């Protein structure tokens, strides 16, 4: 890869990596608003209560899901461009994996459309109609959202594996360990839903912690490598004198 092209993608990634944690923080905020609005109510009911009393949490949750998987899609596609000369086949698969994240992004849109519609209907319904709406959101919206998030879990594991195979010699191993840990957790989530065994929920905070630390650490690595590429590029005319 030409130095100018490498520098361009390193510059982009060194900045993008520090933006990746922001959708996760927005997701935490939306969950906090939903929990605050619904108290100890089940998750299906919390959506209904939140829409009736404070729909901001539900809107933010949809936005956070779209931004979360959209930012990961850009991350994988940019990595594929960075390594496309050295690993043309693997980078092609990584790009395809990145594009695949548009599928789970649509789960966020469901929160803006189907979930909000059912929740608003719930707020003006009573008795048996409310119970019927709860069943609808559990059997339709939640299952659709969960299936699309499962796709994200699978693609995350595949993408991280491809990244490790391409960058294992240029990225510190502790960053790979953090990413692989997060990928393993997401694959466990995927297979738990596929085969029906219980997933230990305590691993979800571990996933987020490992992933966010890995993002920030990789951003620092890319920033340093961008500066090294810039210095090397400036030194070329001097060597040619």
Number of helices: 9
Number of strands: 0
Largest sheet: none
Stretches where pLDDT is under 50 for at least 5 consecutive residues are 235-241
Estimate percent helicity.
Answer: over 70%
Mean pLDDT score = 82
Radius of gyration: 21 Å
Q: Which structural class should the secondary elements be placed in?
A: mainly alpha
Strand content: under 5%
Please write the string of helix (H) and strand (E) elements. HHHHHHHHH
Basic shape: elongated
User: How far apart lie the N and C ends?
Assistant: 24 Å
How would you describe this protein?
By secondary structure, this protein is an all-alpha fold. 86% of the residues lie in helices and 0% in strands. The chain contains nine helices and no strands. Helix 1 runs antiparallel to helix 9 (203-240), helix 3 packs across helix 6 (102-124) and helix 8 packs antiparallel against helix 9 (203-240). The protein is elongated. It starts with a helix and ends with a helix. Mean pLDDT is 82; it is low at 235-241.
């Amino acid at each position: 890869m030409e130095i100018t092209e490498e520098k361009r993608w390193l510059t982009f990634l060194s900045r993008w990596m520090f933006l990746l944690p922001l959708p996760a923080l927005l997701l935490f905020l939306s969950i906090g608003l939903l929990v605050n609005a619904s108290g100890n109510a089940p998750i299906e009911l919390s959506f209904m209560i939140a829409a009736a009393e404070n729909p901001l949490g539900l809107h933010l949750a949809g936005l956070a899901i779209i931004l979360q998987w959209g930012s990961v899609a850009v991350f994988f596609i940019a990595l594929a461009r960075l390594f496309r000369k050295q690993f043309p086949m693997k980078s092609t698969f990584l790009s395809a994996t990145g594009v695949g994240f548009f599928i789970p992004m649509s789960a966020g849109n469901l929160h803006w459309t189907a979930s909000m519609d059912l929740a608003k209907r719930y707020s003006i319904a009573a008795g048996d109609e409310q119970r019927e709406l709860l069943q609808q959101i559990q059997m339709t919206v939640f299952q659709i959202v969960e299936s699309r998030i499962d796709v994200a879990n699978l693609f995350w594991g595949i993408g991280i594996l491809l990244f490790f195979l391409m960058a294992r010699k240029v990225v510190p191993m502790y960053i790979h360990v953090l990413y692989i840990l997060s990928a393993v957790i997401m694959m466990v989530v995927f297979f738990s839903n596929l085969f029906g065994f219980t997933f230990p929920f305590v691993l979800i905070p571990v996933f987020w912690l490992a992933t966010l630390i890995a993002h920030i650490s990789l951003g620092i690595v890319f920033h340093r490598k961008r500066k090294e590429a810039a210095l090397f590029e400036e030194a070329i005319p001097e060597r040619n004198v």
